[in-house]
Specification:
The protein has 2 helices and 4 strands; from the N terminus they run E-H-E-E-H-E. The chain is an alpha+beta fold. The longest helix has 12 residues, at about 65-75.
């Protein structure tokens, strides 16, 4: 089975809606981190020109990655430059820690 990691940097104000929509489509799990940074948009009203966002990560099966990213984009999109970004990257290995078995180079 192949996995992808979907990473989104979104406005924190959209986070609750995104969480609900991801739950509705059955996303297998979500990790959220509060971040402070800039991209296309700079907050010139802030001393450091940075803004607060939420960093959302979802590990999902390859076949569901596009659905997850589309759900995030549809939920957040308002046509503004401050809406963030989404990346889908391949996962070389995916290991559930509860199922961990040490693998050696001989295997």
């Amino acid at each position: 089975m192949f996995y992808r990691k979907v990473t989104a940097i979104i406005p924190t104000i959209s986070l609750e809606d995104v969480e609900k929509e991801l739950e509705d489509i059955g996303a297998p799990g979500i990790t959220i981190t509060k971040v402070h940074g800039s991209g296309n948009y700079r907050n010139y009203y802030a001393k450091d020109t940075l803004s607060n966002y939420s960093h959302v990560e979802i590990f999902t099966e390859e076949t569901e990655a596009r659905n997850v990213s589309n759900t995030i984009a549809k939920t957040v999109s308002r046509g503004m430059s401050t809406e963030g970004v989404i990346a889908i990257v391949p996962v070389e290995e995916f290991i559930h820690i509860k199922d961990f078995k040490e693998v050696t180079n001989d295997e």
